Amino acid sequence: MKTVFVVGAGPAGIYATQKLARAGHSVFLFNRDIKPGGLAEYGIYPTKDKMKGGLRKLFGRILDMPNVAYFGHSTVASGKALTIDLLREWNPAALVFAVGAQGTKKIGLPGEDSRGVYSAKDFVYNYNLLPPFTSQDFSTGKRVAVIGMGNVMADLAHWLLVDDPNLTAEEVIVIARRGPFDTKFDRREFDYIEEYLDCRALEDELGRIKESIAAVGQDTAKVAEASFPALAKPRQDPTGARLRFRFLSSPTAIHADKDGRIERLTITENELVPRNGGTTARATEKTSDLEVDTLIFAIGDIVDPTVGLPSNKGIFLTNPDQSQSEQAAYEVFDPQGAHVVKGNYVVGWARLASEGVVGKARYDAEQGVDHILKYLEGVSDGSTPSAAEIRASLDRKGLRPVTQDELAHLARAEQRQAGERGVTPFKFGIDQEMLAAIEAEKSKSGNAAA
């Protein structure tokens, strides 16, 4: 039996842990957050309780495997108490990084740091109650622009138009670089917000771009069938908040008011041109301004370089010699030494940012573990400290690692709060509240046992 460290307890990290543990290896799982689950816990839409509940139970069973040790609330990052170098000093047989794509993707617009401008990932973390995002300002106004038209956009519009307890948004404007035939959202996700679609405004928008997309053989008369079936249904204009689309447009500048909050967005009009058998969007010289007081970028994610792995242009670097071996795509590569970092691997979104959801993360993690298991056959287990020794070391460094058993205490505390408040489910949104709840539950359990 070898000892493997897995960093990150989202779907990729947990499924990697399961496969390694089933192969007989001891797995130490380090997680930034107190709770495991990653995007399965903090990215799936809040009201999808059945899906979240099923994943929680499954992940809980994996963490309860006898050869798995969980270290929640244990961030691995450069300059922090727990670093990659320290993990390597503890001499695991292999290190697997499943830390996801936690960086903030920016496109370098003037005014990008204005108040009211957010990345979709951070905004979703806020309404899904992930610390520390719950303590940060994600206020929204009446006119919200969302850049991108995939499923994340649909979730954002769902929250802003339906479930936001403040319901400040009167209009959500989706700004898309390409046209109406290039939507990326699933129909079932759009169904939640279809009643808010301003069909008259959409028809006007299709009229605006009709000639532009006709130049590449696209016909606006087929949009209803291809992307927006609401256009073919009996007309019922929304009476309150509205959802609008602005196609063939790219943001180019953000303008703030005297208080530093976005008040206007400059967009450049695009045109579609043929490319490689398909089409691509190309900027024109035409620009226009939209009055908006909130802007959310839903354009994908990048990795967080502060983890400490070699990275470039938003991705962690893997072995560039991938033509000879599938394993190379998972191996961490050090560009300074021009060599593979022996026994270090990336899986899931840490390897391919924003690729798929839970099922895709599981597949990628398990594919990566196949290669890791082969590697482990040829190495001996080092003198790795025990889980108790590592926890003691982290305690001395001022950290407060959370164990599998303590997760059960936290779950009971949240269930009790849900009952007392009459809400289902209830979730603590601040780390210190979670830690305090864990200690309170442990005290109650101790008193009951006595």
Number of helical stretches of at least 4 residues: 13
Tally the beta strands: 16
Q: Which architecture of the largest domain does the CATH hierarchy give at level 2? A: 3-Layer(aba) Sandwich
Please state the overall shape, judged from the principal axes of the Cα atoms.
globular
Strand order of the largest sheet: 3-2-1-4-16-15
The run of helices and strands is: EHEHHEHEEHEHEHHHEEEEEEEEEHHHH
CATH C-level class of the largest domain: Alpha Beta
CATH superfamily of the largest domain: NAD(P)-binding Rossmann-like Domain
Structural class: alpha/beta
CATH topology name of the largest domain: Rossmann fold
Range of helix content: 25-40%
Q: Number of folding domains?
A: 2
Largest sheet: 6 strands, mixed
Stretches where pLDDT falls below 50 for ≥5 residues? none
Strand content: 15-25%
N/C terminus separation: 38 Å
Give an overview in words.
By secondary structure, this protein is α/β, with parallel strands linked by helices. It has two domains: 3-102 and 302-402, Rossmann fold; 117-297, FAD/NAD(P)-binding domain (3-Layer(bba) Sandwich). Helix content is 33%, strand content 20%. It contains 13 helices and 16 strands. The protein has helices at 11-22, 39-42, 49-63, 84-89, 120-127, 151-163, 187-190, 199-214, 223-226, 358-377, 387-396, 404-421, 431-449, and strands at 3-7, 26-30, 68-71, 94-97, 117-119, 143-147, 171-175, 242-246, 249-256, 262-275, 278-290, 294-297, 311-312, 315-316, 331-334, 339-346. A six-stranded mixed beta sheet has the order 3-2-1-4-16-15, with helices on one face. Strands 5-12-6-7-8 form a five-stranded parallel beta sheet. The two termini are 38 Å apart. The mean pLDDT is 94.
